[in-house]
Input
Amino acid sequence: MARTSSTDAEHAGIRTVASLIAAAARTAPKTRGVDAIQSLVVDGEDMETLARAMEAAAPGRPDLIANGLRRDARNVRDSVCAVLIGVTGAAKKPENPFDCGACGLKTCSNLMNARAKGGADTDFFGPICVFASMDLGIALGSAARVAAEHNIDNRMMYTMGVGATKLKWLDTDIIIGIPLSATGKSIYFDRG
Ligand code: SF4
Output
């Protein structure tokens, strides 16, 4: 008789869902039909690497973000694996621009010029086109839906994106992380 412990079965299920999340991020609707989303599944020793990068980003930051980086790093260590989802923020189809102004610049060309000047020393790179922001939100919503449909605990974490950006794991402007876990009570809420 072949037997699989519940822990092994649960972890296998979580890893399967991580792959399904990556697929959901890929098939999520993209504005203007241009896909600027990237994702990465993080597992094994790289979870510790990511947790350390998050903690390393804490010193010198305001208490709110510093405490969040350290607290979320503990969550990363306690998770089975995670999915990172990022987006690049260039204007889409610049040869046929919308020039909507929502990014704070009057034209798409102005946004591209501002981006060419390089970013500040901040968590993420900007400015980005608002349509890229929409795509990231849609992809994250699709990802969380897949996790929820399979009853896998999860949470969207800005702080994981900070660590992953420091590690240069995705060539994107913004990254949000989604750690995954399955325990009797979600480890991502009521954390004190
Ligand atoms: S948000 Fe900015 S870059 Fe994006 S379509 Fe509008 S003007 Fe162009």
